[in-house]
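A common beginner's mistake is to predict each chain separately and then try to dock the pieces by hand. The better habit, illustrated here, is to supply every component at once so that their relative placement is modeled jointly.
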Amino acid sequence: MAIKTNPGNYFEDFRTGAQLVHAVPRTITEGDCALYIALTGDRYPLHCSAEYARSLGFQRETVNDLLVFHVVFGKTVNDVSLNAVANLGYAGLRFLAPVYPGDTLRSVSEVLGKKENASGQNGIVWVRTAGTNQRNEKVLEYCRWVMVNKRDAATPTGANDRPDVPAEVTPDALVVPSSLDMKRYEAWPSGGSAFFEDYSIGERIDHIDGMTIEEAEHAIATRLYQNTAKVHFDGHAAKSTRFGKRLIYGGHVISLARALAFNGLENALAILAWNGGTHSNPSFAGDTLYAYSEVLAKAELPGRPGLGALRMRMVAVKNADPVADAIPLKVEKDGKSSYHPNVVLDLDLWLLMPKRS
Amino acid sequence: MAIKTNPGNYFEDFRTGAQLVHAVPRTITEGDCALYIALTGDRYPLHCSAEYARSLGFQRETVNDLLVFHVVFGKTVNDVSLNAVANLGYAGLRFLAPVYPGDTLRSVSEVLGKKENASGQNGIVWVRTAGTNQRNEKVLEYCRWVMVNKRDAATPTGANDRPDVPAEVTPDALVVPSSLDMKRYEAWPSGGSAFFEDYSIGERIDHIDGMTIEEAEHAIATRLYQNTAKVHFDGHAAKSTRFGKRLIYGGHVISLARALAFNGLENALAILAWNGGTHSNPSFAGDTLYAYSEVLAKAELPGRPGLGALRMRMVAVKNADPVADAIPLKVEKDGKSSYHPNVVLDLDLWLLMPKRS
Amino acid sequence: MAIKTNPGNYFEDFRTGAQLVHAVPRTITEGDCALYIALTGDRYPLHCSAEYARSLGFQRETVNDLLVFHVVFGKTVNDVSLNAVANLGYAGLRFLAPVYPGDTLRSVSEVLGKKENASGQNGIVWVRTAGTNQRNEKVLEYCRWVMVNKRDAATPTGANDRPDVPAEVTPDALVVPSSLDMKRYEAWPSGGSAFFEDYSIGERIDHIDGMTIEEAEHAIATRLYQNTAKVHFDGHAAKSTRFGKRLIYGGHVISLARALAFNGLENALAILAWNGGTHSNPSFAGDTLYAYSEVLAKAELPGRPGLGALRMRMVAVKNADPVADAIPLKVEKDGKSSYHPNVVLDLDLWLLMPKRS
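With all components supplied together, the output reads:
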């Protein structure tokens, strides 16, 4: 009898060019959206109010971009990263179409390349994942690379085909929802007073609020996304790891940072893209997250006169107020620069921001 | 560059007569209702069963009154009480129309008056808040007053316009849903055997059951309501407060007490109004709540022969069984009467109760 | 004034042949289904994807069998087991029709018999419970027996009518949803590669993954099901019990085991029946569950050529990896065989499994 449980793919199992059709298509419902608000504190009105969304040309409230990401990503874990040692990076992530409650999402990944590490213990695998809806329209795509254990450390594979991944998403590649119509845009639903013109390159916005994460909260969120990474759920096995406890899904940290960032970026209508991102340190239950954002660049969106794109670095810091406790992004140690131990996220993203005029 | 994050209004920022249009309109969904049941244990069948609700003339199951309250209230925090020292009271709260899943709620408050305290550190602000649906129909209104910090304690404002707030909601002001039709009323869906006639003024009903509150539970509930009060979420900052930990949103205590009160008040169809209420002591994660109710008054509802209104004092007690441990509502100390330290809620409300005949 | 709160039925209160119409009919919504996924990690695609469900002839995604069970069961607690000392067993449980979001469930139980224990302190009560939808179609039925305290231990009742309960559900009594159409069945949505033919009698499948349960999680789940058993909620009272803490609802353990069993039984379309089951040891917050399954029998389903039924023993083990730590099902002590203290569930069930051909 063959083993019927899925042990996950090892480095040797990935073949460059292969397509991985991920299991468990998922209809996103009003229930998922309510849970997303309850677990993250999200308040962006496009995802909260059917009336507001309709006033901007949408059919109804849209599913939060990051909830879409988590569901699409969650499906890939079983095939891509069950034996991953580390999530190394993201590139070229773009949201391509609005998702509504009732839409059914599925995920497919293509293996872009793989490269064995010098140690022989593991290697890096690059994939490009697409999330599609029930009409087979792409709603999300991104590249991701992970360090994956080898099944057999003693036998070199010679794998050495590192692919090119985009260094950034250029403004011309950003996709603004075609249905979005700014003619009836009002600011009261967001409560924000700042618009595209008000943000300056180099400006930093401290989002002030803090959010403590409980074990039940991140586990409920991560199960909602049907993400099967064992490190988030198995507290018994976690006792024998170097941390001695469960790790919080990095995506939950992104969601909390984005929700905290509502305070200062209220009018931001959507995340358009991620240029890249790093889970710079792990988070655990009991941690309190704070967030700040820096304006890296501003871009016009041709053909969309009432809107602009803000390129932002969104940083999450744990257990210390980034301002009062003056937490730097990076620290020098032995001549090497690395993230401050309290910095848990460094995400470079494009936001869609209404213009004042 | 102007500061873009909202630090909340200080005492000086309120102007009597001003209208505060609160951000983040919210479509209440089936997801919110399911979460409300899961977080509170609510069992009133009007909010659980579409069939039962239709048998009474409603379109479908209605949104729990208190979920409506929490959502309407949650929106006001950012403008009214982000810098509040204390929530002092409620008055004249009335539920005015049923809310259904799919309805979109917004909140607007009017500043009724303000009065600086003798200390000069802070003052009291009175507001009247209305919650409206997408047809601009009022579904809820209430007065609330809070003690708010001054931005500048050294400069007196001279504010001294304390408004009148209603001492009670008189029975003629109670609004019974016009669609409610008692012709097909049955008791089995609630399981209760007591009706309007069976409750006597002065009678006390001990609701027996206890409910322990976990940190994740109150935080999930309070985020669901998009209530942004920092004291419920930021465990890191809470370490430096006098409690050393996070506070539970007082509204969660009200919801739990109301859910516990199902045992003994099963046939109560709705909360019609609050005459007033006090969060008499704080609650924290790990606390177990018990509840009891006292019948304060009974009122006929003209034109609604099958229904009456019960005025009830609903009391929540923590970490002690109110009966077995004989917890009094108030205690005398140094000639002063104050709430027993285990009493966390004293709410005076009107319930809609079917008549036996 | 009569006591208005429900103290639950005592042994003396049950009358053989009596019908108990349980309170609180419940419309199952998308919100309940999302919460079920978030609380259990369930991934069976029939409950996740409207598209997949439609491809198999269903109207849309169906409500998870176990969510149906928990809701139907939850309603019975108030009348059947509020004063129960122990849940002794289940028999003859069958799922009879699919439930969809929007359906309204109610429960009715018949008292099958009762038998006083020799001690005189308590006795066993047998009930048969049926869950029905808004069209009065049975969706679930099962027998259950519980040990219930007597109100008056000093007065013997002489009750001694132990009923027959089915020792098993024979294959001819299994109900396959009539709408299920396998013509368009595909395996990618489940991700599983094993079918009916691939499972051998006697084979054991270790489901590998572990799931830690937090206090908030089981309490949220159990409130969602409106199960009112005090032992799950009242942490204050629990301090005085022999465990000193709250017990986890045994049904939550079943749900977690079933969700863990997705890894190795991905194609299983539904639970058709339970032959019997035992909550062999209690579970508490902080426990980590693992699960394994053994194939007890295989049965053809006449008239349903693409499908077969697998009779499985599903075992849940806590705080120990059943394989690595070699946890036996039972241990001998003083010449008596009893469940290993880490074994918390032993459930004998029939699964509906597609055939390869």
